[in-house]
């Protein structure tokens, strides 16, 4: 169970949603200035009528402050769960050791055995129930955090693309579906700067949105 939960919670490096990008008017004189990579994507548009760009997913995970904060929150939640679970196991082991010691000292009579066995079974079931129920709840909570974060990045990606006249914005990740992209299309640094600049705005109301998602799930 521990390994399964860990893989789920620490999987913030999992594939984020691809930000689809709307068209913007080329006559918008108020568009923000962009760095060289974005300008290169615009020059590509002159050749094929379609402006494309990409960002490195791994860089988002390590350089976007909000992403790292959510990862830290989920790690703390998992560690708290693991500590509580381990404490329950230690308490049960102490109970078993105490019973074993009493049996060796002939402090337990025959008619007490059935009650002791029943108590031991109930303690085991309680631990298993905690591990399953709390573990599953933690898994769902982690997924809600990740989904909301992906939505935030996707929306920011759409807005970033609109501002820079990009028609298609992809993410690149080793082992992903895209094998190779020319570095001329790389806007990673610009996108990360854009995300960090809007970090407070993206964080605003995040916990409330996650809670709303959880309430919606519980009503279904």
Automatic annotation (TrEMBL):
Protein name as catalogued: OmpH family outer membrane protein
The GO terms this record gives for MF are:
unfolded protein binding
UniProt keyword terms in alphabetical order: Signal
SMART domains assigned: OmpH (SM00935)
So which residues are the signal peptide here? 1-22
Ranges of biased composition (kind: Low complexity) = 24-35
Report whether Signal shows up as a keyword of the record.
Answer: yes
| UniProt xrefs under InterPro entries | Chaperone_Skp, Skp_dom_sf
Q: Where is this region: Disordered?
A: 24-44
Keyword field contains Signal: yes
């Amino acid at each position: 169970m521990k390994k399964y939960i860990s893989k789920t919670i620490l999987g913030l490096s999992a594939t984020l949603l691809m930000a689809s990008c709307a068209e913007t008017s080329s006559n918008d004189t108020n568009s923000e200035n962009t760095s060289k990579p974005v300008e290169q994507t615009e020059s590509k548009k002159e050749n094929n009528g379609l402006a494309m760009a990409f960002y490195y997913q791994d860089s988002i995970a390590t350089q976007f402050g909000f992403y790292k904060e959510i990862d830290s929150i989920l790690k703390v939640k998992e560690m708290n769960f693991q500590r509580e679970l381990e404490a329950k196991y230690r308490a049960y082991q102490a109970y078993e050791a105490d019973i074993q010691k009493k049996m060796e000292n002939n402090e337990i009579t025959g008619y007490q055995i059935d009650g002791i066995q029943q108590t031991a079974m109930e303690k085991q079931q309680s631990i298993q129930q905690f591990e399953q129920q709390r573990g599953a709840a933690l898994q769902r909570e982690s997924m809600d955090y990740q989904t909301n974060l992906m939505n935030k990045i996707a929306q920011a990606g759409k807005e970033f693309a609109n501002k820079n006249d990009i028609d298609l914005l992809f993410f690149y990740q080793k082992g992903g579906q895209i094998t190779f992209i020319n570095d001329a299309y790389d806007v990673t640094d610009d996108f990360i700067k854009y995300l960090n600049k809007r970090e407070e705005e993206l964080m605003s109301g995040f916990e409330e949105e996650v809670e709303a998602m959880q309430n919606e799930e519980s009503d279904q």
